[in-house]
Amino acid sequence: MTISWGGRAKQMWQAVSKQVPAPLAPPDTFPIDEVAEMLRDIGIALIEVQVPSGVVESRLERIARRYTSEPVRVVALPTVLIVQVGRVGHEVAASTGGTTQLDRAGKVDAVARLATAGAVAPRDAVRDITTARTARPRFGPVMILVGYVITTLGFGIVINPAWTALWAYVFLGAVVGAVVVVAGRIPTLAVIIPSLSAALVTTLAIWFVADAANDELLRIIAPALVATLPGLSLTIGAMELAGGAIMAGSSRLVYGVVQLMLLAFGVAIGVAIAGRPGSPAVADRMGPLSFYVAIIVIGIGLYIYLSAPRGSLLWVTAAVAVALIGQKIGGLFLSSAHSGALGALLVFPFAVAAAKLKTAPPVFVMLLAAFWSLVPGALGFESITAAAVQRSLDAATLGNTFSAVFSIALGTLVAWSIYDTVFARRDDGLNSGKLEA
């Protein structure tokens, strides 16, 4: 018996794609209180790995339909989750802090996938999600520091591809990376990281780096401060606000703006301590291929610094490449503050399609890496910092800042709307309804 080309293609697709497991039991098999506890723990874990609140609500509702026929209400905010199942199961959880640890996001997503299919008992899901939430990063402090330095070098080549500035990116990246690693072990220092890092880097750059690198101060220090730039918070907040989640979106946006202001204040302090830098000389620029080398460098750096899941290096790098190349193409016909829209528009369908393959990480792991590479806060940081140093904050500066943020959010929302309209209704359930973590 011969197999048609369509049959062969189907077999090949099944061999390389992730399959939806069968449900363990029909709805209403497990006690409501266990279902409510499972929804609470999965939901707060999704919030902690930076999944937008609307996505969390939608995903928990889909999980609930696999386990109960009772009405379910979910309210998700950036740090709080409220779940009610019927009139009995009522759970409230608060998060003590988010994380960009990508391997944790992958583990949380694995449990959520099983629950979405109804393929795990509630108690087992609670146990597995607790293990995922307490998982340590794959890499130790030294490797995380190395990853941060590599990431800084890559972003430096993208933002300011000057040969004389390479050593400055490595030096300043190591300084900020050390601060971030130490602060990660002392949570009480997290509040002052933006101002402390910015002030320290600015002072060192003026004293030892800027003149030697023959370049402008802000272009030298911006790559090193990538970890403290609130680009991810601003982008997700803009997505939530545009999607109708007013409380979640506005609170996240306010948080991001405050972080951005603290960074600018730190730079102003550094300038006050070290004095204003002199006029830089013209630095030798790298060739056009440096941009594509930087993509690989950023992919490797983010893979280590964000502790991405095993085997995801190529996928993380590919997501970074799609985002940055899309942003570069967008820059041909859009302003620099708006070019991120095309990068976000292109990386979303790539992540959704790639996540269906067995070897690929979850959608949101790739999207997080892509959002980092787009650095939506970088342009805003440079403009606001320049205004802070020169004491001339105006409407145009604020406009450029929020244009960079909302352009990326708009690109993601447009891509999601197209996907939801065209593909979601005939999806196999693996990624249906909303973004996967």
UniProtKB/TrEMBL annotation:
Domain Threonine/serine exporter-like N-terminal: 41-273
Record carries keyword Transmembrane helix: yes
GO molecular function, one term: transmembrane transporter activity
UniProt xrefs under Pfam families: ThrE
Keywords assigned: Membrane, Transmembrane, Transmembrane helix
Segments traversing the membrane: 139-159, 165-182, 189-208, 220-241, 253-274, 286-306, 340-357, 364-389, 401-419
InterPro entries: ThrE-like_N (IPR010619), ThrE/Ser_Exporter (IPR051361)
Superkingdom field: Bacteria
Family note: Belongs to the ThrE exporter (TC 2.A.79) family.
Protein name from the UniProt record: Threonine/serine exporter-like N-terminal domain-containing protein
UniProt organism field: Mycolicibacterium poriferae
